[in-house]
Amino acid sequence: MALPSVAAPMLDAAIIHEKPTSSAAAKAALPTAPTKDSGVRVVAPHEYKEAAACLAEAFRLDNIVRYAIDTPDRMHLTEEQRFEMHQSAMEYVTYAHCLQGLVLTTGNNFDCVALWLPPGKNIDDWLTLLRSGMWRLSWKLSKEGRVRFFDEFLPLLHHSKQEILGDRDNTSWYLNYIGTKPEARGRGYARKLIEYVTKMADAEGLPCYLESSHDINIIIYGKLGFELRKHIYLQRAAGKELRLDVMVREPVDKQKEKD
């Protein structure tokens, strides 16, 4: 679980004039309609609100996802008002991933949604910030929210990813968000959306990276090949530290497994 990968937005010409890569080709080949074997499909840009609604509901009670919204200087707002801000943020981030990343869904009606960034991709260039509406966060968040988001949260995630992956930072798949509607949990949807990408990562010999905000996820992601690498902490919440678990899945050589 994460948001944009760096704190300061930069215009990266490589994003606009990018040469095709194997990951880009793989993304282009992914189905926009559910496949018979997996039921997984790519979310089109015009569907971003439906996908974002799934994530907003999935993370409704998540203290880390709402870290920049549920601030002391926003407690005068009702829960409904703060949830609207939370949902708007999910819409911006989801649309940004539709533009630059890979948004997957499965189930009958956006029951589970995953936001992936393929190798070499990010969502913090100026064009994506403008088109997705993410620039609005700079004035929609409160003063404390901006400090938490831009000065603490984003730099922490960015530096941790660089530290852990090193030279492989730009050649990894990054799972920014994955969430399932409460009523659709327990059906294996999240596994489908993760394995859909890990199969591509294995074929390319690339690692997958994520941050998780719940203890139980260490076990769940562990069953999918992810290993815990580090705990990182957000420290501006009054009276408590909020922990994120950083996990990495190394590529699996299927041929060696057979041998």
From TrEMBL:
Question: Where exactly are the transmembrane stretches of this chain?
Answer: none
* Alphabetized Pfam families for the sequence: Acetyltransf_7 (PF13508)
- The organism's superkingdom is given as Eukaryota
Give the molecular function GO annotations: acyltransferase activity, transferring groups other than amino-acyl groups
Positions of the N-acetyltransferase domain: 113-245
Among Gene3D superfamilies, the record links this protein to: 3.40.630.30
Q: What name has this protein been given in UniProt?
A: N-acetyltransferase domain-containing protein
Instruction: Identify the taxonomic lineage of the organism of origin.
Output: Eukaryota, Fungi, Dikarya, Ascomycota, Pezizomycotina
